[in-house]
Structure formats: structure tokens, C-alpha cells
## 1
Amino acid sequence: MNSLVLFDSLSGNTEKVAKAIYDTATIGTASHLLKIDKETNINIYDYGLIFIGSPVIDWLPTKTMMDFVKGKMKEYNGKGLIKPSSPIIPGKFGVCFGTFGGPHIGKREAQPMTMWLRSFLEHLGYIVLDEWLFVGEFKNRENLNKAGRMGNIAERPNAADLATVQGQTEGILASLQDWIA
């Protein structure tokens, strides 16, 4: 099973998580790592396992990620690939992930972003297995890293956070072992 780690990152937090997923996923699958930009053109359906992630910006993914998703929805709908009631395609799985920090109040505020990405994958017929959110340092805003509701988030995601990413990725791969083989 081919896997794709597709992400956007503004300050490097989400990229750290994406790389930890990729480094772990390469053990069990043929894996690709791709940071999207305005020129990204990839066929999502070429992959059986998609990890898609973004930092949270105003409760949603980055503009670059949203433009990519909207473009893919338009493209696939035009090709008749988006079906009424979004039937599941066997062997297609996804995980949505993201990072949040700074002025955020916690995971609940970040969940709309992963739910937005989840809806994208489910419209394509993917079964979304999980949504992962990780605290990330808010760059160049020291006061927002130490005084908020989330406690001290300086230098996050840290080694412990990335070990959690690795463990969760290993768990996903183990649960899909029959599909991967």
C-alpha cells in the first residue's frame, strides 16, 4: 500500500509532525512526503493511506491547504469521482493531523481544522481512521508560549510529542497490516 504524508507548515511545527509520520510510515509502506504549494498536482487516489495535515489558522487549515482541497474537489467532481452519499472505497484510508498553539484554548478549538480535512477525504471515499492534534510553539511570541491555558508550549512539538506521533503511526500501520501485505 502506498502512503502519502501531505501537509502544509508555516513555522515548522506541522512539518516536524509530518516528518515523524513519514519516517515511521516508510517502515511499513512505500511512503511519500509532500509539502503542498500553489503548484502541487498529485492524484490522491494513487495512495491507499493518506496522512493530511496543516497548522490551525482561525480554526481551519492554511489558505494553501484549503485552496488545494477545493481544487481537488472541483477536479474530482468534474471527473465524476465524487459520488452521491460518498461511498467507501475499499482499501482507502486516511488520518488527519495538525498543530496548534499560541492564543489557542486547546484541542477543541483546533478540531474544526481536522474535521474539515476529514470531510475532504470522506467525500473521496476514504475511511478516516483518526484525527491527531499536537501543540506547537508559536514562533516569535514568547508571551503566548508561556502564559496561556495550555501552559508552557515553548519548543513544542518536542521529543515526547514526536514519540507519540511515531507510536500512533505504528498503531495505524499495525491496524492496516492485512491491507498493507
## 2
Amino acid sequence: MNHFKNIQSILVVCTGNICRSPMGEGVLRYKLEDAGLSHIHVDSAGTSGWDRQSPTSEAIEVCSEIGVDISSQRSAPISKQMIQASDLIVAMEKYHLREMIKSCDAPDEKLFLLGEFDAQNPGLEIQDPYGMPLSYYRNILQIIYHCVDGLIERIKNNN
């Protein structure tokens, strides 16, 4: 079964949903629109259960540097409903995949590491920049950006 065909919704997951997944959601939306795939719904969530928190000021700042506004996003804890509603779920670390399987019965075939779509380093786990300097956030954003390129390429090649 091809899980990259006819995708209507993508969920991006990290731990607190205040750094990596909001950056991933913002970049993915931005790049999907660029690729003529703006019909694909993108959302994000966290495995730790934070609710209604703004992204960190660093995440907002580094995204704004590349023209992506994530300031209105708010964190949400992952739920079975979110998993069921998503065609594809991309997480930052293997730990997040395990958590979704354990706590939400997430179907394995929907789950991917975002880093699997990194052309240079497939299977990469994207580290948490929380509490780190802006330069570290920029680094993480660059990794996310390249992975999103690979993900969109995969989607385009399967439609």
C-alpha cells in the first residue's frame, strides 16, 4: 500500500509541540503551498501533553527569518482522534513514534521519522533545540527544511 498517494492531512509530532513540530508544521505548510499542494492539511502535536502554549520565541524568530510565521500556532497534546484523522504522521525522534504506538495505538504504516526524508542522512533523528541558543535553532530549522523538501518530493512522485 502506498501511503504517499492521495494524502489529505499530515501531522507533525515532537515532545512539547513548542519548538520542532511547530517549525515543521510552518515549513511544511509554506512549502506545500509553493509546490501547489496547499489542499493538504497540516497540523502538529506533542507527546508530552502541553496544551495551548505558544511556540518558543526562538522558534518564532528563526522561522520568521525565512518568511514563515508560526506565531499564532498553539501546542496540543497528541490524541487518538488526531492520529485517526491524519493520513501521514511525521515525528522528530524514534521515541515519539514509540509513544504514539503505545499511548494512542497509532498504526505503524502511518508513522515516519521526518528525518527519513533527509537526502544526505536518511533516518536522522532531529534533536530538541529547547533551551539552546538561536544558532542551534537555525541549525534544526535547516534540517527540518531539507527533510520537508524530501517529504514533498516523495508526495509529488506518488501522485
## 3
Amino acid sequence: MSLERFVLLDHFLQINCTEANAGSMEKLLPLLKLFSEFASIYPLSSRICIDEIIAPFTGRFKQITYNPQKPEKWGIRIIGVADSTNGYCLTLLPQLGQDIYSYLGVKNLDELIIHQMKSFCLHGSSLYVGNYYCHVGLAEGFKTTGT
């Protein structure tokens, strides 16, 4: 992308939130809604993958995380759901603690994962997870919701 095109896009890109109780997610809600619209028109395969992503960031932000195991040690933790056949990202959800939990109406990380996967996992789908999401409580949560 040329510098002129970047400057033009940067000049006209504006994010507005019209929800009254958005709180600290004020700037992110329009982007989250845009991702959900992309995921609703994408034809899903039977193989879905969920994993965490660390978006590199070292500025001033309340929810910055440090993970010495990752190549990028400091950043914003994001839960990503992708189609594992071609790598198309279906949804990205930043891990913002209680703000994102209250917005989606969930209590903890396990319920957040199940909430994200409900619309993508169909009967007979294969779900691929990393080590972080591979525990008995989450598997029982999927079993009770019928996904």
C-alpha cells in the first residue's frame, strides 16, 4: 500500500459508537459488529480452530498482558476463531476482562469461549483448540450446550 493511499484511508476512517453503556469498549464495538457480519456471510467448513493471539503493543492500555512464552512478549490478548481449512478469521474478540464479560452476558472465560463457538460449531463439526483451551470444564460446557 502506498503512503498516499494509507494517508487517504486514515483520513476517512472514523469509528463511532452509538450505544449508551459501551464504557471502555466504545471504540471496539463497531469493529466487533463488523467481524460478526463477515462471519455471518462466510460459508463455514466443518473444521473450526480457536486460539489466543497476542497483538504486539507496548503503549498505555489497561488490559495489556505479558507472556514470556510468546514471540511478542507484551501485547493485547485476543481470542481468535478461524476456519482451519484456509485460515480465514471468523471472529476476533479482545480479552478485556469484566468489560467484555458484561457486554456478552457471560461470567468467565469458559463461558466466553462457548458463547463464541455456538454460532460456528454445527453438529458433526471438528473443533481444534490449543493447550490453553483443552480442559475438562470447557469440554463439559460444550457437552451441556449441545454444540
## 4
Amino acid sequence: MIKGATVDCAQSHAPGEISLGEPDWEGEYFVGAKGNLLFFEWADGNNGGRPFSLLDATSGKQVYADSAYDPVFWDRKPDPSPFNRLRVISSPDGAITLRYLHVEVYECDLHLPTERSSCWEKIKVQAGLGNRQIPVCTVYERIHAHDGSAVAYPVEVSLRPHPTRKIIGGPVRCWPPD
């Protein structure tokens, strides 16, 4: 839109207007913008995480997508951890960095005593968690069948020049998947 210009209401796009195309928007909502990035997240999460995506407002193309830990799913007040939600950090030069607990589901079960150690070794290798200690898993008392583990670990994502994700220090959490 050109400052001071008026645009008639129409189903077509105005000249110079960027369209985000026709993606599957079912359940995905706009939550904010930072610089030229548009932030979207799903209304509902899964496995203790809330999927989100970032689009470039100048091109309409997706820049990055992942799933971040969301304590809202646990019906309790979030702890004061810097990892209790997705954090967006901008530097003076305009670079954007994200910090959050990345959520991923693994096929082995960290709750079963017979699988616990071998499962954690597999997860550490697959996720690149190095020598992290096995976490204490929560809310398993609510389930009867065991079929994997949801694990959240701290990451930092630098969006410039291309999105790169690295594991950083912080809590590792686990629970049964949805």
C-alpha cells in the first residue's frame, strides 16, 4: 500500500501487493511481525509443542518452521525459565535470533525402566545432545500405553544469512507423546 493512497475493496490484489499464496491456513494464525518476518503458529499444538512458521513479508516465502515447547499444554503456570516460550532476539544490525525448546518425538520410551538407558543413548546421538544427562520425564502417570517419548531441548536459531539451528545450554525435558 502506498502511504496516503486509498484502495478500493476488491477480490483481486492491488499492484505491488504481495500475496502469501494459497497455503493450507487451517489452524495457523498470524501472531506478529519482526522486521520483514511474519510469525504464524498453529492454534493447537501436538506432543507438548506448538508448531510455528516464519514467512518473509517481501517474498511471501517460508523462511523457517519448527515446533517449540509450550507450557500451556500442561495446565500449569509456566516456570520462570528463559525457555518457557519462543524468544525472538534482534541485534542492532537487524539480525534475528530465536531461542526455544525444540520439541521432537522419538520412537523409544524413556519411561520404561528396561528401555530408559538405551533409549536415551539413541536420542542423544539422533539429536546431537552430546553428554547431556538423562532428564526426569513427567506426566507418565496419566497414560497406560507407552509408545515413545516427546523430548524438548534448548536451541538457538540464527536466521541470517540462512537459518541455522544449534543446541545450546539449558533444560532438557521429556514426557509421553500425544
